[in-house]
Design goal:
The protein is 35% helix and 25% strand. With 261 residues, it is of the alpha/beta class. The longest helix has 23 residues.
Length: 261
């Protein structure tokens, strides 16, 4: 009797020895090294959070104020209300800056910075008066933006007085007193340095009628705030050409006039 064929023997072997399942490659589960790395990262992160918020290492202990002239550091620090003892990282610097500008209008800008590990720095820029408005026995300071920011008992030196006496014209109704003040500020800011230091009064009666009262009884008709730099150059030339003159008119800078020489 014939024995099993090669195909039959192969079939029997396949039945008796089924194929083994593939060995796992390890891609489906994290390696021990990766687990260690994750654990270390979590440990460091929790340690950093504790150091910043829970420990006493990085807490506010001192405040340093710079840039003040009229204001005092004590005034600024009181208005800032820096939370001494709080975690330095938790200090809301934006809110502190807004609070300072609201409570102290003399402050033009302020930067609140963290000074690690224990400090807060307040870098202040004060507004500078370019004009004064008399109010009774006191003076209101006006800065280069036209902002009335402080009332003082004594007029600061070399800051001209603003006399705003507008006529009841259509121009006043059109521009308003606020616009006239800004025009006066604009003129004061564009005066030649030698003229600015001698200017005692900036007088405004309308948008295109601005004049200056200088030391020594001298006067300047400036006109409107238009062409300020040109008028400044023309006025400088006129004063050099006629140093003893008492009246200068640069309202039309292409046709200036001098009198009282």
């Amino acid at each position: 009797m014939a024995g099993p064929t090669t195909a039959q023997r192969g079939a029997g072997q396949q039945t008796d020895n089924p194929a083994r399942p593939p060995r796992p490659t390890g891609r489906g589960r994290p390696s021990r090294r990766l687990l260690v790395v994750i654990a270390v990262v979590l440990l460091l992160a929790s340690g950093a959070v504790w150091a910043l918020y829970g420990s006493s290492w990085f807490r506010v202990e001192e405040v340093r104020t710079t840039g003040v002239d009229v204001l005092t550091p004590a005034e600024v620090e009181s208005a800032a209300a820096v939370p001494i003892g709080a975690p330095l990282v938790s200090v809301d610097t934006d809110a502190m800056e807004a609070r300072l500008r609201q409570k102290l209008p003399r402050i033009d800008s302020v930067d609140v910075v963290r000074s690690w590990p224990h400090g807060i720095g307040l870098k202040v820029t004060e507004r500078q008066p370019v004009l004064l408005v008399k109010k009774g026995a006191k003076f209101i300071e006006v800065d280069a933006k036209g902002v009335r920011f402080a009332t003082v008992d004594k007029a600061p030196g070399r800051v001209p007085l603003l006399e705003l006496t507008p006529d009841q014209s259509a121009g006043l109704r059109r521009f308003g007193s606020g616009r006239l003040v800004r025009e006066a500020v604009r003129v004061a800011g564009e005066l030649p340095r030698a003229v600015a230091k001698d200017t005692q009064v900036v007088r405004v009666t309308s948008y295109d009628s601005i004049s200056l009262e200088l030391t020594g009884g001298r006067a300047v008709v400036w006109g409107s705030g238009e062409e300020g730099p040109v008028k400044a150059r023309v006025l400088t030339a006129l004063m050099k050409a006629a140093p003893k003159a008492g009246h200068f008119d640069v309202s039309a800078p292409t046709a200036p006039a001098v009198s009282g020489s």
